[in-house]
Specification:
Elements (H helix, E strand, L loop, with lengths): L5 E6 L3 H12 L4 E4 L6 H4 L30 H15 L3 E2 L4 E7 L2 E7 L5 E11 L20 E2 L12 E5 L3 H12 L3 E5 L14 H9 L4 E3 L3 E6 L2 E6 L2 E6 L2 E4 L7 H6 L25 E3 L14 H4 L2 H16 L4
Parallel strand pairs: 1-2, 1-6, 2-3, 6-15, 7-14, 8-9, 8-14, 9-10
Antiparallel strand pairs: 4-5, 5-6, 11-12, 12-13
């Protein structure tokens, strides 16, 4: 044991990564958690006033109860809860320290990281759990002007866009929420969606609102349409009736996100070519690279709607049991 810094490195400090670390610690294993951002960074980047679709007990990890003022918790309550859990279990979490490379082999990995100050660090561990999520990898539009400062793939809050001409690209829940909040705050909102109608997955209490605003002409919507170019004061949109140019101050490209498959592939994780679902042992969630386990949404590949906090958190116990068993069978020494 003295030859190793930690038994297991968990990459990703979201709810699933924290659940993995907790279950590992419960089994007497020394864990360390790395994240390129803050604890539960994805939740931090959610819209400021976001309400979870689920109930508090389905977000719980480590058998720590979660309380909420209302039936469904809000973002700020989730942030407070996961901080409290991290403190309760005294998890070893290194925030703002992205993992750049994982070398070595099962029971003898070296995890290379970089701190906020630019210092490169190295940790020896026996096992690795990747719980990197997908929220920080937006699906790009691939059009001229997408790199302009006025374009964002994340929506936080509406106030800065009062009395502005804004375009919201997308037709799912995040696009609907952004469009509504921006409209309610006094922005002039245009919704642009490549499909013929809004997604069926929009939350049931959001859908009537967005549909009525569109029906009443309060939010202008273009379906079967796509943005073809973004300029400082305009956007070009290809519609069924031809190309149009809209006055525009800001663009919210709510086009979804995807796992960092490049990072995974570079570390020996193999995928199904069509679904981009990584090959894992269904019982242990060990990947094609021995000693590296996958947790959370990345297990589903591009089908990111299959795994959420509610079921991804359960991977922690599954993986920790497998790792503890393997290390016990082979002895925990170097």
């Amino acid at each position: 044991m003295s030859h190793y810094d930690f038994d297991v490195a968990v990459v990703g400090a979201g709810p699933t990564g924290l659940a993995c670390a907790i279950e590992l610690k419960r089994r007497g294993l020394r864990e360390i958690v790395f994240d390129k951002g803050c604890v539960v960074n994805s939740i931090y980047n959610y819209p400021t006033n976001m309400v979870f679709f689920t109930t508090p007990e389905l977000l719980e990890i480590g058998d720590v109860p979660m309380t909420s003022l209302y039936e469904k918790p809000v973002r700020v309550e989730a942030l407070k809860y996961y901080r409290r859990v991290a403190d309760y279990y005294r998890l070893e979490i290194h925030q703002y320290e992205p993992v750049e490379r994982i070398d070595g082999e099962d029971r003898n990995f070296t995890v290379q990281t970089r701190t906020r100050s630019g210092e490169q660090k190295s940790y020896r561990v026996k096992k690795v759990v990747l719980a990197t999520g997908f929220y920080d990898r937006p699906n790009l539009l691939g059009v001229p002007g997408e790199d302009l400062p006025k374009v964002t793939h994340y929506y936080k809050e509406p106030h800065p866009y009062y009395d502005m001409d804004v375009a919201v690209i997308g037709g799912k829940n995040s696009a609907a929420i952004a469009a509504l909040e921006l409209f309610w705050t006094g922005a002039r909102v245009t919704l642009i969606h490549r499909r013929e109608s809004l997604s069926d997955r929009i939350k049931y209490w959001i859908r009537p609102n967005i549909e009525n605003r569109i029906k009443n002409g309060e939010i202008k919507a273009y379906f079967n349409s796509r943005v073809t170019e973004i300029r400082p004061a305009e956007v070009d949109v290809e519609t069924p009736d031809g190309k149009i140019t809209l006055k525009n101050d800001f663009v919210f490209a709510m086009t979804g996100y995807h796992p960092d498959t490049e990072f995974l592939a570079a570390h020996g994780i193999r995928f199904d070519e069509q679904t981009r679902r990584p090959y894992t042992d269904p019982e242990t969630l060990e990947s094609a690279r021995p000693g590296i386990h996958l947790a959370g949404v990345i297990v589903a590949g591009m089908e990111t709607n299959e795994i959420f906090i509610e079921n991804g958190r359960l991977h922690g116990k599954q993986i920790a049991e497998a790792i503890a068993r393997r290390l016990e069978e082979g002895g925990r020494g170097p």
